[in-house]
Amino acid sequence: MDKPIVIIGLVLLAFLVFLLLRELQAWYWKINERIKLQKETIELLRSIDIKLDNQAKSKNEENTFQITGKTVNDIYDKQKIVPWNCKHCHTLNTINESICEKCGKEKS
Ligand SMILES: [Zn+2]
Predict the structure, then answer these.
(1) Digit-coded pLDDT (tens) for 70-93
(2) Residues contacting 102, CB < 8 A, separation 6+
(3) Strand partners, 61
(4) pLDDT number for residue 72
(5) 0.70 cut: is pTM over it?
(6) Cα separation of 101 and 81, whole Å?
(7) Ligand 1 center–CA 92 separation, angstroms
(8) How far away, in angstroms, is 90 Cα from ligand 1 center?
(9) Positions of the chain with pLDDT under 50
(10) Angle, vertex CA 104, rays to CA 103 and CA 108, nearest 5
């Protein structure tokens, strides 16, 4: 028997078995279906993004919240705090205005 031919045949067989098992796994765990759904989701999100972008451009005005009538910038400005250094642990705090993020002591 020719050894190289047998080896090549075994490799091909192993490869075919691998492909079959892979397809079986993809079917069993619904992997192909999930990927299809994810692609659809991405497409939908893109179309929504484009539509919103076009709306914003056509309105050409600042986005306001319907209930409060505030603009996005109003709210963003309110949340901005001046960074400060803690006197106890010297941490630069950028989120909380009065209590240190690291040691929890009050700004004094
Ligand atoms: Zn501190």
Answers:
(1) 666 666 666 677 888 999 999 888
(2) 86, 89, 91
(3) none
(4) 65
(5) no
(6) 13
(7) 8
(8) 6
(9) none
(10) 100
State which amino acid sits at residue 16: L
User: In this structure, which amino acid lies at residue 21?
Assistant: L
Query: How far, in Å, CA of 107 to CA of 87, rounded?
Result: 8
Longest Cα–Cα distance of the chain, Å, equals 90
Q: How far is the CA of 107 from the centre of ligand 1 (A)?
A: 8
Between the CA of 78 and the centroid of ligand 1 the distance, in Å, is 23
What's the gap in Å between 88 CA and the centre of ligand 1?
5
Identify the CA nearest to 96 among candidates 74, 81, 77.
Answer: 81
pLDDT for res 29: 94
Rounded CA separation 5/15 (Å): 15
Q: How far is CA 74 from the centre of its chain?
A: 26
Q: What angle do CA 55, 56, 62 make, to 5 degrees?
A: 145
